[in-house]
Amino acid sequence: MQFTDRLYKKAKPIWRKSHDHPFVQGIGHGTLDIEKFKFFMQQDYLYLIDYARLFALGSLKGTDLKTMSIFAKLLDSTLNVEMDLHRQYASRLGISEAELEATKAAPTTLAYSGYMLNVSQRGSLADLVAAVLPCTWSYYEIGTELSKIPGALENETYGEWVKMYASEEFGELADWLITLMNELAEGKTEAELTALEEIFLNTSRYEYMFWDMSYNLQMWPTDDEQ
Ligand SMILES: Cc1ncc(CN)c(N)n1
């Protein structure tokens, strides 16, 4: 059994909750309230800025040119393909690029990005990959699953989103990170593997919280005006 099989098995109940979340199902069935999607897009844009930074850090921590160049590809793809989808959606939804970048981070966005960056900055390349893997892998799984719902890919509002995350190109990025995770896990002690597993489970939990935050338009409970 590969290390990522073990991770997948452990995280499955959490991932299942994300798949079944009304936000995710609403995208697949085209029934999601557009205000919730707008909120998600803006928060996700902020999240992706830090997610891109993680790939830059991966390139820095990589010890061979192949690893460095694949992280560079992940960085480019995040900044110029995935975030472009957000920019296009924002323009369709009447949000300017300046507004997108000036979005105030919600507590879950801040906590999730902060956790990933903290683990990756003070840890090893294996810690970094364990932190980002649920993001890429679970989105590919969600995209693929939603793409099987009749009409999901053709939906006027959410079809492009489903297409992006179900695409072969996005799947290749997830596959590459899976392979790297298994390579980096080789020779590690059980205690080290358990620590990686905990990071993977934590970002899986944050993934669920991100859907839930977006569905509930959850900002700071302390501020009246957001
Ligand atoms: C919160 C979150 N997690 C993952 C992804 C996929 N890159 C994303 N866009 N947003």
UniProtKB/TrEMBL annotation:
EC number(s) given by UniProt: 3.5.99.2
| Organism, scientific name | Alkalihalobacterium chitinilyticum
Q: Which residues cross the membrane?
A: none
Q: Tell me how this protein assembles.
A: Homotetramer.
* Stated role: Catalyzes an amino-pyrimidine hydrolysis reaction at the C5' of the pyrimidine moiety of thiamine compounds, a reaction that is part of a thiamine salvage pathway.
Q: Which NCBIfam families match?
A: salvage_TenA
Xref: PANTHER family: BIFUNCTIONAL TH2 PROTEIN (PTHR43198), SI:CH1073-67J19.1-RELATED (PTHR43198:SF2)
Q: Does the keyword Hydrolase apply?
A: yes
Q: Copy the pathway line from the protein's UniProt record.
A: Cofactor biosynthesis; thiamine diphosphate biosynthesis
| Keyword Hydrolase in record | yes
Domain Thiaminase-2/PQQC, residue spans: 9-216
Name of this chain's protein: Aminopyrimidine aminohydrolase
InterPro entries linked to this entry: Haem_Oase-like_multi-hlx, Thiaminase-2/PQQC, Thiaminase_II, Thiamine_Salvage_TenA
Swiss-Prot/TrEMBL catalytic activity: 4-amino-5-aminomethyl-2-methylpyrimidine + H2O = 4-amino-5-hydroxymethyl-2-methylpyrimidine + NH4(+); thiamine + H2O = 5-(2-hydroxyethyl)-4-methylthiazole + 4-amino-5-hydroxymethyl-2-methylpyrimidine + H(+)
Q: Which UniProt keywords apply?
A: Hydrolase, Thiamine biosynthesis
Query: Domain of life, per the record?
Result: Bacteria
